[in-house]
Please model this.
Amino acid sequence: MSRRCICVADHVVTRPVLGEMVLLDLSTEQYFALNQVGTRMWELLATGETVDAATAALHDEYDVDAAVLQTDIDWFLSRILDLGFATASSAP
Amino acid sequence: MMPMLATAHRDLISCTGEQLVVEQLCQLPANLAVWRDAVLGDARQRGPGRASIRSGRCLLLDDVHAALEFGPYDPLITVWSDGSYSDRYLDHLLRDHVVPRRLSLRGEHVLHATAVEFDGLAVAFVGVSTAGKSTLAAASVNAGGRLLADDTLLLVLRDQAVGVRPTATHCRLRADVASLLPGSAATSLIEGEAPVPLGLVCIVERGGGDVELVACPPAAGLVALARSAFVPEANEVDPASVLDHFFPLLQGIQVAKLRYPNGLHILPDVVELVRRSLDSSGRRRTSPPMSN
Model:
């Protein structure tokens, strides 16, 4: 099991929006919208779940093929890391 | 002894129906000069249109050649320029920069947007500065719509319904485009008119080969509003507060992405699609009439 997790950057604030979420990067003053699935991914990862645990939780919650889910969460992770919303770390 | 600085006073009816009094100075007062230098020295402030807020009042700089100081309610607008600008350009600064910032300072919901009314419902167009918002508004007026706003869109929230307060008297178009769109001709504001219920906000994007109108999910809709918000000065306003400011409007607004190819010839099709969407929204039948 991978112990990868993320640490949300201090310059990122979030706002829930009718079941979805807006991320605000205070360093660039750019806004980003997450849909419902992205919001759930963020909620799980931002609260300290490991990537594997988040993936398992999402697989339980959504009727989705495991391979598709893995691709989606890998893409989501790479995006939030590239944008500087979070840094990768290892769970203790 | 302080010199007499005022060289001219003139009255200006703003696009919100207020009567502004403009005091033109030939010399920038010392307190404003210090403030201006602080803004010019602020590394976060870039390019024309720099502005700053102090004690609820705003200092707006256009490059280094003009400074305008004003408050949210005070009708007196202090203007200094080095003489390199025409009265027409200063009028533009007053109408398109000072007035929306005054409204924003009051806590009003102000967007960089155009808006048009069709049969009692308003549609607003937001987007980047070259997206074609004014052109689309003029094309909508050509198709029978009524211009409500161009550049300064003032939204009002009443009983969970969002309305557009009419502020525009003409479309802001280049002369060559205006000549092709008679709808850009001037109209009159009706004093004390009630806001027009807002049926749709379109995020305008040009490109692609088709005319498309695709509904936005809530978070994307809020981001579109926040990105189009006219805040007094983005560098001095907590951007999270912009989200919080516009969030209450979200439940009363439908937001959609409007994408269409370049070319004036396509605009009638674009406007027709927007009208059909307004018609099918059903809000005309369900929205309560708005009052002032």
